[in-house]
From TrEMBL:
Annotated region (Disordered), positions in chain: 1-25
Descriptive protein name: Cupin 2 conserved barrel domain protein
Coiled-coil portions: none
Domain Cupin type-2: start-end pairs: 38-109
InterPro entries: Cupin_2, GPI/OXD, RmlC-like_jellyroll, RmlC_Cupin_sf
C-alpha cells in the first residue's frame, strides 16, 4: 500500500497553460485519474480550447469564485461549493470572464486519465 499527502501550492505549475494548473495526480504518480488544481484569473480559461472527450468523465469543483462553463446549449455559472459534471462527448469550455471581480480556484477530476480531448467548433 502507498499513501501520499500533496500540497497543491508547492507543486510546480505546468508551463505554457492559459491558466495556472498544478497536477496532484502527477505529483502522486497516479495513472488512472487526473486530478488538478487550477487558479484562473479574470479573462483566463481552464483548458486550451473549447473541447470534448471520447471517454473521459470530468468534474469541476469550484473552491473559490464563480466559474463560467460554456456548452452548446447555454453558459452555466458554477459557484464556490458547487460541482459541474461533464459526461463524455459533451463539448464545454470553462473560464473566468474578463470582467470578473476575483480569480477562480477549482479542483478538476477526470477519469480515466486518457488524452482523448478534441477541439469543438461551435
Amino acid at each position: 500500500m502507498e499513501y501520499h499527502v500533496v500540497d497543491p501550492d508547492v507543486v510546480d505549475p505546468e508551463p505554457d497553460r492559459p491558466s495556472e494548473k498544478r497536477s496532484i495526480s502527477d505529483a502522486a504518480e497516479l495513472d488512472q485519474v487526473g486530478v488538478h488544481v487550477y487558479g484562473v484569473a479574470p479573462g483566463e480559461q481552464v483548458p486550451y480550447v473549447y473541447h470534448y472527450h471520447d471517454e473521459q468523465e470530468e468534474i469541476l469543483y469550484v473552491l473559490e469564485g464563480t466559474l463560467s462553463v460554456e456548452t452548446p446549449e447555454e453558459t452555466f455559472e458554477v459557484e464556490a461549493g458547487q460541482a459541474f459534471v461533464v459526461e463524455p462527448e459533451s463539448p464545454h469550455r470553462a473560464y473566468n470572464p474578463a470582467g470578473a471581480d476575483a480569480p477562480v480556484r477549482l479542483l478538476a477530476v477526470g477519469a480515466p486519465a486518457v488524452d482523448d480531448a478534441h477541439e469543438y467548433e461551435p
